[in-house]
Task: inverse folding
């Protein structure tokens, strides 16, 4: 698409042109119900640039083989490519060693791995795991499972009406029984960016291990695990413009080494007899079975792509999208935005008086506008705000101001339909 001269994107940074970036995403040029697709469901999953699609295609056409096994050409090439992505993720996260990067199926599996394995290592009856009110079910249920197996208890940090953590309450919750603190970096339902560095410093006063759910953070902001000071960091490839079926768990080497395996099978062992087995070194101890090789390679291409766009440009463009969306929606009568944190990613959750969020989603969909409506896998958070569900528009760097305006116009239309 040729850049529109009259477009409000004109004031963009010289090196970031949203219309040029959109050219890299084939799906953004399709129509739905005869209307141009306006994709505002990026917190659920992001679209894939051609570079990612091509990297996967090339892998299957030129390299496909199982890794770490065959002593043949293709197997060696596939292993090299797979392990090169591990080093890329190490750099991407600012980790000290590549053996600290474990490939999983996604954030959900990463958190289940750490809850199950670290939980078995650390938790005793009466110990406490601290979560926050704004957690995704993926960062609640795995902790419930391990707490019921070990006799540990879950404690919850409340949030204020803007959707920010109440740090004084967090401080009061901390005590010598606090073994693990698990929190999201960015809330999928509110957009709140949590002060992870500060939370880690507070948690470390009682020597708690800190697990960060980065599912919603990596597409919006640069992450440096050493600067954050956390012990584990989890994210999903598909929310970072990469493939589904691949995720990352970064963990401190000494903790990963001390933790028992999560799953057993091929690849994760050193020796096996019917009496006992011994484990491979990290990270392989946590990668049982044939991994998602093509997906890892696609994730590597996604990371290269995002770094080439650059987090500075992403941050600036998304902040402008968020401001425009907030301004446009906040003035609509009967519309209430849920989540007004000072530090906020480009996510706008809202409810409309007298209209169910599903109806908002359905009417917008007919105009080609894809948003999410529901509890966003955050039922305790919905309860906190006294709603059963919200409508949520979540943006990525390839969204335009015109799309924000179309969203606001679409919501006005919903009101007309229901008036
Ligand atoms: N945590 C958060 C904050 C999320 O938004 C999501 C996905 N909606 C997850 C965890 C789970 O990610 P996945 O489904 O990719 O495992």
Result:
């Amino acid at each position: 698409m040729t850049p529109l001269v009259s477009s409000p994107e004109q004031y963009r940074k010289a090196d970031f042109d949203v219309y040029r970036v959109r050219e890299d995403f084939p799906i953004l040029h399709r129509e739905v119900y005869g209307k141009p697709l306006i994709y505002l469901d990026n917190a659920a999953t992001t679209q894939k640039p051609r570079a990612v699609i091509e990297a996967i295609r090339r892998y299957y056409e030129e390299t496909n083989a199982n890794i770490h096994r065959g002593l043949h050409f293709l197997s060696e090439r596939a292993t090299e490519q797979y392990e090169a992505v591990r080093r890329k993720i190490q750099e991407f996260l600012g980790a000290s060693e590549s053996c600290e990067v474990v490939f999983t199926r996604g954030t959900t599996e990463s958190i289940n791995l750490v809850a199950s394995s670290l939980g078995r290592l650390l938790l005793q009856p009466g110990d406490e795991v601290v979560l926050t009110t704004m957690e995704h079910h993926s960062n609640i249920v795995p902790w419930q499972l391990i707490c019921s197996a070990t006799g540990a208890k879950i404690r919850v940090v409340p949030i204020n009406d803007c959707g920010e953590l109440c740090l004084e309450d967090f401080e009061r919750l901390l005590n010598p029984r606090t073994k693990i603190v698990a929190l999201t970096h960015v809330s999928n339902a509110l957009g709140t960016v949590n002060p992870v560095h500060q939370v880690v410093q507070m948690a470390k006063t009682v020597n708690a291990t800190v697990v960060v759910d980065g599912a919603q953070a990596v597409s919006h902001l640069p992450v440096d695990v050493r600067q954050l000071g956390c012990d584990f960091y989890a994210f999903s490839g598909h929310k970072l413009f990469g493939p589904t079926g691949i995720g990352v768990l970064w963990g401190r080497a000494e903790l990963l080494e001390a933790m028992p395996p999560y799953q057993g099978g091929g690849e994760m062992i050193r020796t096996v007899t019917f009496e006992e087995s011994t484990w491979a070194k990290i990270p392989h101890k946590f990668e049982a079975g044939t991994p998602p090789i093509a997906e890892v390679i696609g994730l590597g291409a996604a990371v290269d792509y995002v770094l080439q766009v650059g987090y500075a440009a992403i941050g600036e463009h998304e902040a402008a999208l968020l401001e425009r969306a907030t301004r446009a929606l906040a003035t609509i009568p009967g519309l209430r935005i849920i989540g007004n944190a000072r530090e906020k990613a480009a996510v706008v959750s809202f409810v409309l008086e007298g209209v169910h969020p599903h109806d908002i989603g359905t009417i917008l969909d007919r105009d080609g506008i894809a948003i999410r409506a529901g509890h966003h896998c955050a039922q305790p958070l919905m309860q906190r705000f006294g709603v059963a569900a919200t409508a949520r528009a979540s943006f990525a760097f390839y969204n335009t101001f015109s799309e924000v305006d179309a969203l606001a116009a679409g919501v006005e239309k919903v009101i007309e339909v229901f008036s």
Summary: The chain has two domains: 8-48+310-418, 53-307. Residues 8-48+310-418 form a domain with the Aspartate Aminotransferase, domain 1 fold (CATH 3.90.1150.10). The chain is about 40% helix and 15% strand.
